[in-house]
Amino acid sequence: MQRSEYSIASDDDFVEFEHAGAPVKGGFECSTCGYGITIARQLPRCPMCGGGLWERSPWSPFRTAPTGLRSRLD
To answer: Where in the chain are the domains?
Structure first.
């Protein structure tokens, strides 16, 4: 199997990254280790791995629901 140098993705597959230091508001996950934060200021370097790229987290009203409630909703 030959690996292509380029990958073809649709517009729906595009992931926008933010760099540490960018002014943002919302939930983000470290692109290196997956650590998640919710922030309304400049993005820091990841406190877990030191990474500097962040991906916006998908929003969900149940993302931080208590464990018992989340299991009943799934």
So the answer is: 16-57
Please answer whether residues 52 and 45 qualify as being in contact, where contact means their C-beta atoms are separated by less than 8 angstroms: yes
Helix/strand/coil (H, E, C) string of 17-60?
Answer: EEECCCECCEEEEECCCCCEEEECCECCCCCCCCCCEEEECCCC
Do 39 and 25 meet the contact criterion of CB atoms below 8 Å apart? yes
Tell me the residue type at 1.
Answer: M
- pLDDT tens digits for 11-64? 566 677 888 988 989 899 999 999 999 989 999 999 999 999 999 987 666 555
**How far is residue 26's CA from residue 54's CA, in Å, rounded to a whole number?**
11
Q: How many CB atoms are located within 10 Å of the residue 46 CB?
A: 21
Q: What's the token pair of residue 28?
A: 């983000």
